[in-house]
Amino acid sequence: MRDDEIRTRLRENNPWWQAAAAGRDPDGWALDDRSLVSRKSFDLGYRSNLLHDVANGDVDDKLIVLRGPRRVGKSVLLKDTALTLCGRSDIDPRQLIYVALDGMTLADLRRVVRLGRELTRSMGERRRIWLLDEVTAVKGWTAELKYQRDNTPFGNDTVVCTGSSWDDSSNVKRDLMAGRSGERSNRRSRILHPMSLRDVLIATNRLNPSFEKVRPWELQSPDALRIVETLEPFVDELDLAWQSYLTSGGFPRAVAENHNTGAVSDSFLEDLASWLHRDVDPDAHDDSVPRLLSTIEQHCSSPLSRKTLAEELGYADGNGFDVRLNRLTHAYAALWCHQIDVDGNRKRGSQSKMYLADPLLSWIGPRLRSGIPSPDFTRLTEAALAVSVARAVDDLQTGRWESDDAIGYLRTGSGKEIDFSKVPIPSPSGVKQSVPMESKWVSTGWRAEARSIEGYFSLGVVATRTILDTSHPAWAIPAPIVALLLE
Questions:
Q1: Which partner from 130, 207, 218, 322 sits 20 to 30 angstroms from 80, CA to CA?
Q2: Are strands 417-418 and 408-411 parallel, antiparallel or unpaired?
């Protein structure tokens, strides 16, 4: 892009500059902003607090990398953050620089940093707040921002970088986290996930869980027991809410559509399918991604036989199948669950499980392509719990989701599998081990599953459909209550 084109984009992306210079309301732009106006049709009041420290905290030299799946609301979150910043009396709106980097090159990014500061030169030495939307799509972006942080005033500014994927050529930790993400910045790498069950229940006024979540090693603690007993009268209601959640997932628009009309629209499912087709299998026919997602859902409760599934889906070899699976994880649409030992270490050479990162992704195939079987609620429950555990672990130690070691399954000496074995998690008092868990979506007959986990660990949780029983070493807790305990 030419400099004049970049200047035009910067002015268009930052309407609050002109408003502030003219003495007008710096918040007025929100009435015409496409992202915020579009949300009104699907707004249940849900707002992520993932950038609360940027919107409401000190303007310092923090750098945050925010990633997550497409259509989850990253751009809307940036606009919400901009709106809050524009309303603060201690900040001049001209300190705020938002830019949508779609379609830009590395050279364009370099000029954006230069021209953004030039266009706000009336702010002098005051720190800027940069909101760089979809910067991770620019190849080489981490090395460029490293240079800017090391050699220009950009290094003193607050910077938020967003993106919908990660790749091995962009070394965020090496280039941006080592001494370049601010003196007081915490949780420098963040993931905006779809709404949790708790978020959905609150947004839809179905139930307002007022209790605090517990950490993964506290699932059998006195606090957890108190919460479980408090929720016992709501087990049947939570079962219905859980089934609804397993149908709609947590993408904000999908939650609103399901709440308002009883179903997620085909148009939104097609949006998700288009995103995944572009990011995962752009050269294949249109039904490749729906079939891939359905295959993963059908096999998520057992380790993947990649060679067999590659042949079933028509890939020439297992390598092509592996590439697509890894693209799914890089797009935050799926996560790996590797086999681990009793200490939480990965067992090399073993087969791994894979779970889709939101229940709605499991419905893309059967909803958009005839002949693809509907998801099974037992498997959907296991996948949703895998995501809840992984998100809880990653919340306590940043990077665990992307490192594929937030969850793991264990194979006992007798050949039994424990869905989610113990994994080590840091705590203020030292390393803790998560409570092992089995997913068993049943209303009767849970003890056989419990004996396996009791025999190996002498404790644990069996996530059931409606059974609640804490009288044994392994507790039976309904799956939705487990999800509410964790996040």
A1: 207
A2: antiparallel
CA 206 to chain centre: 23
Tell me: the pLDDT tens digits for 339-384? 999 999 999 989 999 999 999 999 999 999 999 999 999 999 999 9
449 to 9, 437, 446, 456, 466: CA distances (angstroms): 59, 10, 6, 12, 15
Give the helix/strand (H/E) hosting 133: strand 129-133
User: Residue 209 above 70 pLDDT?
Assistant: yes
pLDDT above 90: residue 179: no
- Report the SS3 class of residue 191: strand
Determine the pLDDT at residue 306.
Answer: 86
Question: CA angle, corner 297, sides to 369 and 193, nearest 5?
Answer: 100
Q: Are residues 183 and 205 in the same domain?
A: no
| Same domain membership, residue 31 and residue 8 | yes
Domain that holds residue 171: 3-191
Rounded CA gap, 278 and 260, in Å? 30
Which residues are bridge partners to 105 per DSSP?
A: none
Task: Residue 453: name the closest of 437, 469, 441, 465 by CA.
Answer: 437
pLDDT at 210 over 60: yes
Kind of pairing between the strands at 189-191 and 63-67: parallel
Question: Which amino acid is it at 173?
Answer: K
**Whether residue 122 is found in the same domain as residue 254:** no
The structure tokens listed for 473 are 């070493």
**Section 15-20 average pLDDT:** 97
pLDDT level of residue 284 (50, 70, 90 thresholds)? confident
DSSP SS3 for 210: coil
Tell me the percentage of the chain whose pLDDT exceeds 70: 96
Q: Which long-range contacts (CB under 8 A, 24 or more apart) does 148-154 make?
A: 148/110, 148/113, 149/63, 149/176, 149/180, 150/180, 152/113, 153/117, 153/125, 154/113, 154/117, 154/128, 154/130
Beta strands in 142-268 (DSSP E): 158-163, 189-191
Say if residue 447 is in the same domain as residue 386: yes
Kindly report, residue by residue over 65-92, the tens digit of the pLDDT. 999 999 999 999 999 999 999 999 999 9
Does residue 238 sit in the same domain as residue 178?
Answer: no
H or E segment to which residue 396 belongs: helix 377-396
477 vs 394: CA distance, rounded Å:
23
Q: Structurally, how many domains does the chain consist of?
A: 2
Q: What is the pTM of this model?
A: 0.94
Q: In this structure, are 156 and 204 located in the same domain?
A: no
Indicate if 137 and 47 belong to the same structural domain.
yes
> How many other C-beta atoms lie within 10 A of the C-beta of residue 29?
21
